[in-house]
Amino acid sequence: MSSNSPQLAKSMRATTEGFLYAWNGDWTSETRRTSLSYRAPQCQHIMRPATVATPPRSNEEWGEYFTHIEGRIFDGKMVILDYFADLSSRRAVAHSTLTATAKGVGDWSNEYMWLLDFDETGEKITTIKEMLDSAATQNIRAALKAADAK
């Protein structure tokens, strides 16, 4: 597919939206399956900044990681605030926010910048670089850990 193709642009946008909107609703095994369905087999998911202390993950590793929060997050609402795609490099950038409720914790929110690299069709993500609010992430991790200890 040509890097100037209107179809490539549509595919990249649809894949970005599908991937990010997978976080809407309750986080279940279906959320995990949906998120993984947008990823190429060799996809790497990299969370940043480094202060969140999360190593890059393959699809298999990310799926295992996600099983620890399945059933603990409810009423997720992901909102895409901005989106930009560079078709020549098959890369998109999205700015989003997420609000949700965590079991035993209550309401929380986070803010994200996503750098997404795509395959030649724009239908699969080959690299995910997720930049998130590290303070909010550390707070929710600590709150979930405290809720587990109760």
TrEMBL record:
PANTHER family: AUSTINOID BIOSYNTHESIS CLUSTERS PROTEIN F-RELATED, AUSTINOL SYNTHESIS PROTEIN F-RELATED. This is SnoaL-like domain-containing protein.
